[in-house]
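Look at one record.

>
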Amino acid sequence: MASMSAAEHVARIRHGYTFEGDAVTLGAALVDGEVHPEAAVRLPLAMMNRHGLIAGATGTGKTITLQVIAEQLSARGVPVFLADIKGDLTGLSTAPAGSEKLLARTRGVGQAWAGRSFPVEYFSLGGDGPGVPLRARISDFGPLLLARVLELNETQESSLQLVFHYADRNQLELYNLADLRAVIQFLVSARGRTALEELGGLSKATAGVILRKLVALEAQGMDRFFGEPAFVTMDLLRPAADGRGVISCLVLPALHSRPTLFSTFMMWLVADLFAELPEVGDADKPRLVFFLDEAHLLFRNASRAFLESITTTVRLVRSKGVGVFFVTQTPKDVPGDVLGQLANRIQHALRAFTPEDAKALKATVSTFPVSGYDLEEVLTPAGTGEAAVTVMNESGAPAPVAWTRMYSPESTMGPSPAASVEAVVQASVLLPKYGQLVDSRSAFEKLAAPERDPQPAGAPAGREDTDAEARRIEEEILGRPADRPAAPDPAGGPPPGRRTRRPAAKAPAGSGGASEAFRDIAVQAAAALGRELARGLFGTRRRRRR
């Protein structure tokens, strides 16, 4: 880029961040070390569902930037979901007094600062910590996400998908870990081991690994997260009584002991919203904005299927009016296919203490448009609360890079008193709905009952009929011709061709025997296929709201 004077550079930034619609103000531009309040750096509300990245080394101001954006979104009626890992974000519900140092900083960037509190809903994973308990049914969470939490390999993951398929097909509700354990134990028992033989079966070795992982999960106290009442993600879209957007804050006092569960749960929320929300197209503002903190935990050691599901969900969920911002230390923490979809970038300082750090710095600079700044020189000595910013403008093009001194939050920077947080939790309208754990009748109770027949009613007794039914089910699940050979014709003719998928004929009234048996099988197979199709990109299941 040709060299510009300071005045030209300021004018370019000012023009590039002037938008027709409403926008969140991030701060004021810095050019040649001087702050220019007249060149406000802003992020259009209409472009927030194009997703974003907030990155930077520890202690450079990422959490404060997140707090500033969340406050302004709430003030404009946009709900927000974020995670409080260090306990600092509980200050959102408390108005600060404002020190002279703070007021001097806000005046310097042209911010009309006024201390105030915001409408906050505190949540906790299964009641671990202050907040309304968040729980999910095992069946809703799905096999891909659960395999991620259990750290299963791809073979074990595929076996877990088979277990979920069997439970779906046989009306075995998987609400908690005890339900899943009961189904796995049944499928390798003398009573149940033939149930999946036609689809490859479940080996005792694989079942043993999964069961040991489930026991370890329970030993860490994570069983409290799975169960009922299951959280309805649409509750995140509630407005406050005064019309402001509610900031849903997930308090995580023990992240170090369950980092994978936290990151996977956050992705489940996004996937569930994708399944539930209707398309909105291009709206003036997002329906909801997610901030996925510690984003590197989401991708570390993830399976190929899991990464593909994340990429697809992030790409498609924007059409539902949901924006997703990943918060992490460097852009290299995020896979390229996901990073390419994050149009809004806020990069705080990076430190280059090692050769690996220097490579990360060069890679970060390469993700920004060419600008009037030498970003390699600017990013390393940058102070706390400063960042390189580029956003997508209303025409869908990147705005010029602006080195920015960020605005300050209007709520308390730091934690609120524990008593204040508890008062907010007790006043929540969601506490009566989700506060108490419910133990409903599900797979554990059904399989424990001696009269339970877990096989589909009306299953054909003959070997030829069993083989034919196994081929049909395999074709339905895999979407291709079955590998199982067709049975020979009983009259001695050549083996029939592989079955084609066609609607089952309805049996005449009063007919019995094989016709009724196959009609029953067809009905159950259709129901099973419906449940399979109802599972989304992560194997999560779309829920009927009660």
In short: DSSP finds 19 helices and twelve strands in the chain. Confidence is low (pLDDT under 50) at residues 456-463, 476-480, 487-534. The first helix runs from residue 6 to 16. The two ends are 59 Å apart (CA to CA).
